[in-house]
Task: inverse folding
C-alpha cells in the first residue's frame, strides 16, 4: 500500500545534487508538517543525484515517519521529477517546493485555504532575492509566455504551489511542463488557478542547475509546443451510459 494514501496533503520536493541543503530541509519541513492544516507528509524525489543526496534522504526518511522518498535511475529534469512525484502521491492535495528553500514551507498555509475554490494556487515572488540579471531574464521569459499562452500568470517560476490531485493527474506530460502549470490548468474545462504573494530568499547553499541560455532556449521551444498541443486538444462529453448499476 502506498503510505501517502494515509495523508491529506503531500509536499513534493524534487532535488538534484542538493546534499548541502538537506539538513536545513529536514529541519524546516519537520517543523512545518505538524503545523499544517491538513495531515501532511513529505515526498522527496531524487532526480539521479551523484553527490550523496540519496544517502542523506535515506537517513532523514528513516528518522521521520512522515518523510518518504523515491529515486529516479538517471537525471531526467525537473518536470520528470515532478511528474514522478504526482504519480506517487495518493493524497487529495499535493504541494511543490524546491529543495533550495528559497521559499518557505510555512507559506503553504497561505495557499492551501484557496483550494476550496481553485484547482491550483501558486505563489508569486513580490520581493525576489535574485540578481538583477536573473530578474531581467525571468521578466522577458514571463512576458513571452503570457503572450503565447494567454495564461495571465505573473510568476510561473515560483517554486511554491499547491494542487488538487485530480487536476495534476490530467496534465499532459512533456519536458518543461513545470513552466506552464497555470496554462495547463486552463486547458481543463472549468478549472481555475489563483496567484498569492509569498516570501522569497536567496539561495543559501548549492547552485542553480541551468544557465540563462538553457532556460531561455527551453522556454521558447516549450511555448510553441504548448500552442501546438492546445490546438490539438481532444474534448468530449459523455451524454449516455449504462455502466452504473
Result:
Amino acid at each position: 500500500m502506498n503510505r501517502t494514501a494515509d495523508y491529506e496533503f503531500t509536499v513534493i520536493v524534487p532535488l538534484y545534487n542538493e546534499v548541502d541543503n538537506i539538513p536545513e530541509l529536514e529541519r524546516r519541513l519537520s517543523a512545518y508538517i505538524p503545523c499544517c492544516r491538513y495531515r501532511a507528509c513529505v515526498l522527496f524525489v531524487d532526480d539521479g543525484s551523484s553527490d550523496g543526496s540519496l544517502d542523506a534522504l535515506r537517513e532523514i526518511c528513516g528518522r521521520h515517519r512522515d518523510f518518504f522518498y523515491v529515486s529516479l535511475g538517471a537525471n531526467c529534469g525537473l518536470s520528470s521529477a515532478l511528474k514522478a512525484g504526482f504519480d506517487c502521491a495518493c493524497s487529495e492535495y499535493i504541494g511543490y517546493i524546491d529543495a533550495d528553500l528559497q521559499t518557505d514551507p510555512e507559506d503553504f498555509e497561505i495557499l492551501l485555504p484557496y483550494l476550496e475554490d481553485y484547482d491550483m494556487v501558486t505563489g508569486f515572488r513580490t520581493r525576489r532575492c535574485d540578481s538583477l540579471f536573473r530578474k531581467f531574464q525571468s521578466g522577458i521569459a514571463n512576458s513571452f509566455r503570457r503572450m503565447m499562452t494567454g495564461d495571465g500568470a505573473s510568476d510561473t517560476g515560483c517554486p511554491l504551489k499547491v494542487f488538487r490531485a485530480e487536476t495534476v493527474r490530467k496534465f499532459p506530460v512533456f519536458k518543461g511542463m513545470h513552466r506552464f502549470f497555470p496554462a495547463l490548468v486552463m486547458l481543463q474545462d472549468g478549472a481555475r488557478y489563483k496567484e498569492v504573494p509569498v516570501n522569497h530568499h536567496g539561495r543559501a547553499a548549492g547552485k542553480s542547475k541551468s544557465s540563462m541560455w538553457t532556460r531561455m532556449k527551453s522556454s521558447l521551444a516549450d511555448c510553441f509546443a504548448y500552442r501546438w498541443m492546445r490546438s490539438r486538444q481532444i474534448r468530449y462529453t459523455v451524454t449516455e451510459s449504462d455502466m452504473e448499476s
User: Anything to note?
Assistant: The chain has a mean pLDDT of 85. The CA atoms of residues 46 and 54 lie 6 Å apart. DSSP finds eight helices and seven strands in the chain. The first helix runs from residue 22 to 32.
